[in-house]
TrEMBL record:
This protein's record includes keyword Disulfide bond: no
Domain of life of the native organism: Eukaryota
Organism: Clupea harengus (Atlantic herring)
Alphabetized Pfam families for the sequence: Inositol_P
Biological classification of the source: Eukaryota, Metazoa, Chordata, Craniata, Vertebrata
Signal peptide: 1-19
Reactions it catalyzes: adenosine 2',5'-bisphosphate + H2O = AMP + phosphate; 1D-myo-inositol 1,4-bisphosphate + H2O = 1D-myo-inositol 4-phosphate + phosphate; 3'-phosphoadenylyl sulfate + H2O = adenosine 5'-phosphosulfate + phosphate; adenosine 3',5'-bisphosphate + H2O = AMP + phosphate
Protein's UniProt name: 3'(2'),5'-bisphosphate nucleotidase 1
Top EC class for this record: hydrolase
One GO BP: phosphatidylinositol phosphate biosynthetic process
Gene: bpnt1
Length: 334
């Protein structure tokens, strides 16, 4: 193990470990048969037991090891004692072995802000559960209809992520994305879940970086929060293909794995906890995330949580996609 790793790498090693634990919690809640769903602001804004337990786990674990951090989570939870079995004290050795970028060698805990989305893609998580729970519990799925339901549920589970972002001076500098159900489609013998992470100036790990060929424009966008602005902006990109999926974290995964060339969302909806961690990973491999005006988002502790000018993210050719944003969209998201 590295000798006396610097603060940022110790924090990342803890974030990695608790993200892995969070993925296991999300799977356990799914398997329990009871998601514990409550409506936050309506039927399209849900919170599950997984959201609550994962946020408790992440916030309590990081606070215990790094008490001076500012941690901002999506869920508005009451202050209460967190069960010991939710606390993760381990650190990922593979992270500790990496060198800290020199520009972050002198960071102090109180200078850092951690943004937590305990379950990005809650809608897809609940929809997948509903489909899975509708299939009779037996050793094998038999009918064609049941197989179709199963396939749909597994595709939805691909959208679900746990997101942890770290910012310094308002800039997203490091992030973790855990996909709890990665490899779910491979059956009972597969190792479930994976964790991707990245630090500016160091790189990103846990996946194979791939790019869409330059002669193809594949746009990924929302599957459930569309409106005329979103549609107009997507079509203005003159895409060869449009992919509609859930989860901001999932859309960034699509960019870095060569499934899409641009993430276009010309609307309100995403928050800082949706984009901080994924943005850091994207930037660590040379990509870019801005609002629809080309401005960077700020992630200091006092900013408003809503990304009110939309999201445009690319691995390459950001200026091209930015140039295609209609003036009407820019005016609406001013």
């Amino acid at each position: 193990m590295a000798t006396n790793p610097l603060l940022l790498m110790r924090l990342m090693a803890s974030a990695y470990a608790v993200a892995e634990k969070s993925g296991a919690i999300a799977r356990r809640v799914m398997q329990s048969g009871d998601l514990g769903i409550v409506e936050k602001t309506g039927a399209n804004d849900l919170q599950t037991a997984a959201d609550r337990l994962v946020q408790k786990s992440i916030c309590a674990s990081l606070s215990r090891s790094f008490p001076k951090l500012t941690i901002i989570g999506e869920e508005d939870l009451p202050a209460e004692t967190v069960e010991e079995d939710l606390i993760e004290t381990k650190q990922a050795e593979e992270v500790l072995l990496k060198p800290c970028p020199p520009e972050y060698s002198s960071l102090k805990e109180e200078e850092l802000v951690v943004w937590v989305d305990p379950l990005d893609g809650t809608k897809e998580y609940t929809e997948a559960a509903s489909l899975l729970y509708s299939i009779p519990h037996r050793q094998k799925v038999h009918s064609g209809a049941e197989l179709q339901l199963l396939a749909t549920a597994l595709r939805l589970l691909d959208h679900v992520t746990v997101l942890i972002g770290i910012s310094y001076g308002g800039r997203a500098i490091a992030g973790v994305i855990n996909q709890p159900f990665y490899n779910y489609q491979l059956g009972s013998g597969a190792v479930l879940g994976r964790t991707m992470w990245g630090v500016l100036g160091l790189g990103a790990f846990g996946f194979q970086l791939q790019e869409v060929p330059d002669n193809q424009r594949i746009v990924t966008t929302t599957r459930s929060h569309s409106n005329k602005l979103v549609t107009d902006c997507v079509q203005a990109m003159e895409p060869h293909k449009v992919i509609k999926v859930g989860g901001a974290g999932n859309k960034i995964v699509q960019l870095v794995e060569g499934k899409a060339s641009a993430y276009v969302f010309a609307s309100l909806g995403t928050k800082k906890w949706d984009t901080c961690g994924p943005e850091a990973i994207l930037h660590a491999v040379g990509g870019k995330l801005t609002d629809m005006h080309g401005n960077a988002y700020c992630y200091d502790a006092n900013v408003k949580h809503m990304n009110s000018a939309g999201v445009l993210a690319t691995l390459r050719n950001h200026d091209y996609y930015l140039s295609r944003v209609p003036q009407s969209v820019k005016q609406a998201l001013s």
